[in-house]
Amino acid sequence: MSDASVGVQRTVAPEVALPSPGRWIRDNLFSSITNSVQTVVFTVILLGLLRWALGLVFAEDTDWTAVATNMRLLFTYNYPTAQYGRIWVATGTVLAAVGASCGAWNINPGMTVRRLSVSGTGTGAFLLVIGVITPASTPSSIRTWIVIIGTALVLISLTALRIVDKPHRRSVSFASLLVTFGVAVVAFLWLFPFGNYGFTQGAVYAEPGLVAESTRVPWTVLMAIVVSAFFLGRETVRRLGEAGGLIRRSLTVFWVVGPLFLVFLVLRDPAFDMGYVLRVDIPIAAGFVLAGAVLISLLGQPARAELARIVGAVLAAGAVFNWMAGFMGWYPMLQKVRISFALLALLVLLLPTLAGERAARLRLMGLWAVAMVIFHWLITGMNTPSTLEIAAPPFLGGFVLTVTIAYYVMLASFPVGVLLALARTSKLPIFRVLATGYIEVIRGVPLITVLFFFSIMLPLFLPRGMGISDLAAVFAGYAVFSAAYMAENIRGGLQSVRHGQFEAADALGLTTVQRTGLIVLPQALRVSIPNLVGQAIATFKETSLIAIVGGFDLLRIANATIPNQPDFLGQKRPGLLFISLIYFVFAYSMSRASQNLETRLGSARA
Amino acid sequence: MLPPHRTGSRFVVHFLSLIFGGSLRVSGSFDAVATDLAVAAHARPPIWRNSTILKWSIQVVVLFVVLGVIWFLADQARSNLSARGIPVGYGWLDDPANIQLGEGIQTVDSPERRLTMSRALWVGMVNTLRIAVVGIIFSTVIGVLVGVARLSQNWIARKVAAMYVESLRNIPVLVQIILWLAILGSLSSLTLDSGPIPGWLYVSQKGISLPRVFLADGFYQFMALMGFFGVGIWLLRRRLRRRQDLLGGNQRVGLRLSAVTVVALTVAWFVNPVMAFMGPIMRGIETAWGSVPEQAVQILVAVAAITGAGWWIRGFLLSHRSPAGMTKLIDDDYFKMVFAGLVAALMVLVITVIWPGMASWMINSGSDFWGLLGDKFGDGRGARPLDAMRPTLTEGRFVNFGPSGLTMTVFYASLFFGLVFYTSAFIAEIVRGGILAVPKGQSEAAAALGLSRAQTLRKVVLPQAFRVVMPPLGNQYLNITKNTSLGIAVGFSDIVQVGQTVYNKNAQTLAVFSIYMLFFLGCSLVISSIVNFINRKLAIVER
């Protein structure tokens, strides 16, 4: 091994033709004695590890029915079957947004036919090896399928390499990849004998044959939705030209609030009491919309920036007082009114920066109205009892919980992280000390203690009469934890912004807020994108810790719920292996995407 | 397109700019110049437009808000706790624990050695450190091997290493740990003739057991003797080096030194009982230490804190001196000096008012330490410094501690495997990145000098790679230490798990969490100072 790493292997330039197999083997596997020894040693290691892993997967005491039967449990936990349509609607919306976003931003994976074929051949060959060495306990039908798929992959890839002229030049578009993926999924669902598993009156039934109709049909529709949303998004943006930005902007807004909508309004299905909503909720929202509109029209003119700042400061002080009163219990007030008031103060504080002519003010008013309506709708929905009839209380569980928590932890910790990073690099010493202390303390302790702290201690810290749900407490703890890491990642970006940028901004006469928001942060955030993606992956993986503090996420279900079912007593291994695969697929594809992004950002900067 | 610059009152501009991150990274001199200009233009601004005053007032306001929130929360917690009849403080540390720990240096209460709450937590800490240290060593070794293999010329080696890294780092470590527990738990049960090598190596659902080398009675005498020899060897090394420099050629410094070291080790191995005289000395130190009056320690610590702060401020001022005289100090610099003073004052306050028991605690633990060390030096007993033993089976289970083989319980093993393999995947990536960061010209130059590939790797590439690798490697070491807390998921008695058992018993959640925090922050501090030390050693010496 000692001589291995000196000559660094860079990726081969794409113009080089593929060598003949014999030549390639000689160059890469048997070029010298040490190389040959390495080939033998690593082949033995590889085969041994593979055989061991396959032995785990296909051991006689591993009952994969446990996973097949509990698919719904793993993905959506206890969501009632009668209302399962909501799950499909939510999934469909998210997938449509995914497709539309890919189309609207015109995603291009930069994949060539040759790269695709080479990796296809590799995967096929790997499957063939697995088919050969898999232990005798493997069901023969599975072995046959592995061999068939492997052979098909190898043949298709090799043919593609032969047929296509100049394969290293011919790139594969995202559209064709997506369509192939959709068709493959649909074909598998309608052709592949997964078997039909489920519970009827508590007893497991397992029929050979295709997947249940209730799985097959929705997924076929979903695949159609993704593909058509992609083309719709791409074509709309292309047709609209300049106005296509609107589509992108509304998609961005969807990615911020859409998932909350889906979770709390679609999945949770609040039972609104329309009388109360009309009497109380709508007037409150309307009041804030009106107040914001009035303030914008009065103070949103550039000439009145000074007044706006003073009014904003007064309002902010009022908001702080209002919150204090809430904690002290001086006077009752709906939480959402307190939050809205704080948002109003923030709006006025930002007015001098956002101010503009009449049209800009009108646009700002519209935005404010939309934000207020969305916000009040969401908050009211969250605080209204749900119509779901669930045996066990949390309506969020399984994969849905994992994804939701990971997504919103990232989203919530982002602004906090930015503020912390700015404070830590600031020249104001007390801010710096506070931010540094916070970041270092949080980074010094393990996530699990933070989660325990929040799930156990948060109720203790709150005033009597104020409560917080378990999941919300865990979420808050996770966001607090994640913000510290976010701050460090963004700080790295901030430090990469050159000094001249600051000086140029000052020379232009920008205020500190403008300099930070318009000059420094955009550059800093761009640099920190790869790190932020890395953190997103880590956040996604570490949601598994929620299992320890009481949430029913993938891990808890695979490790505790399924093995406690009378039919699958003690069957931990299949569930754990299956969720490992889920985590792997998502984390791996995210990391690949981030590598692509990094190359593209790098080349864009160069 | 930038919005046109709008002039507003300086008051609110500053006020706002302070809220939103302040004047980020503008150099002190720049700001100072700006202030000077302002002063020149307006002679003396009124108080509400004086940027220094504004800056500080907003900071103080924020500080008070933060402190107020903390105070408020603490007050809430206290009133909530007293409403439930839970005392606040650390008095419970001496209570009997009444718990049985899964594993560790002490698992049950016994008349000779009481298992108090503090003792139980201590056992948990030792367990955490045990797995962290061993895990760091193993994950580094595996990680470096895999990282080097990822850059091998051999296609299969590269692919196997890449598969290792990608599959392990993309699956959550907690899932891996639990999967390991599920795998190990489904192994066969333990009997005398089970295991891959009966009598030597057992792998079963009870755990993994193998022969081990442990410290015997003579170890401390041996180490003390080796300390003396070590000084001699170091002096010899210096002399030999000098000779080498003087004479040139190959004076076989390494060979001679290793020969001498082997001789010293052999001698120390057999004659270590001569060091038994250290026992009484240590006990003398114990008595002397124990008789130090409390006030003396308090005064000593106070003086040390104040002197330290004074030295720091002096050094700070000196660093601001240039041949042209003192550079202008800005408010930030004053803050730093005041902060140093505040830290010193806090230390003085702690040792005298807040926790006066700290002095006696320091005295007691110091004398305990010397007493413990004194016990290790017997009267000529235990000639052997090290001993080895095969695993022994008692009543169908392993003896976990004591003179026996090395045993990993399944809980330890699953946590260990999970952590080591997961972390080694990250370390492999770090090592790979480090090697790639060494410019290709370096290995080409080494080849041109006629170094072999192995020499190039060992003497040119790896030393430079390590410079790049060290900081992220330190991060991984911190991660592995923090991730030991996942032992709670498999029932390994680490600090977090023991702490949880403790607060489930006596509801002292806040106190236990403060112990967690101190412990992990201490670990972070130790690891990062070691990494920083190595970093400084590795840093390129520049003129």
Order of helices and strands of chain B: HHHHHHEEEHHHHEEHHEEEEHHHHH
Quaternary state, please?
A: heterodimer
Spans where pLDDT lies below 50 across 5 or more residues of chain A: 1-13
Q: Give the distance, in angstroms, between the N- and C-terminal Cα atoms of chain A.
A: 36 Å
CATH architecture title of the domain at 58-79 and 396-606 in chain A? Orthogonal Bundle
- At the first level of CATH, what is the class of the domain at 58-79 and 396-606 in chain A? Mainly Alpha
Please estimate the helix content of chain B. 55-70%
Describe the structure.
The complex is a heterodimer of chains A (606) and B (543). Helices cover 73% and strands 2% of the residues of chain A. Chain A is mainly alpha-helical. Among the domains of chain A are: 58-79 and 396-606, MetI-like (MetI-like fold, Orthogonal Bundle), CATH 1.10.3720; 270-385, no CATH class. In chain A, strands 1-2 form a two-stranded antiparallel ribbon. Chain A has a two-stranded antiparallel sheet with strand order 3-4. In chain A, helix 15 packs across helix 21 (554-561) and helix 21 (554-561) runs antiparallel to helix 22 (573-605). Mean pLDDT of chain A is 86; it is low at 1-13. With 543 residues, chain B is mainly alpha-helical. Among the domains of chain B are: 10-83, no CATH class; 117-150 and 409-538, Orthogonal Bundle (MetI-like fold), CATH 1.10.3720.10; 219-277. Chain B is built from 17 helices and 9 strands. Chain B has helices at residues 10-19, 28-42, 51-83, 117-149, 155-169, 173-185, 219-247, 253-271, 278-290, 294-319, 331-354, 357-376, 410-437, 440-448, 453-483, 495-506, 509-538, and strands at residues 202-204, 207-210, 212-215, 321-322, 325-326, 386-389, 393-394, 397-398, 406-409. In chain B, the strands form 4 sheets. In chain B, strands 1-2-9 form a 3-stranded antiparallel β-sheet. In chain B, strand 4 (321-322) and strand 5 (325-326) form a beta hairpin. Chain B starts with 9 loop residues before the first helix and ends in a 5-residue tail after the last helix. The chains are: A mainly alpha (606), B mainly alpha (543).
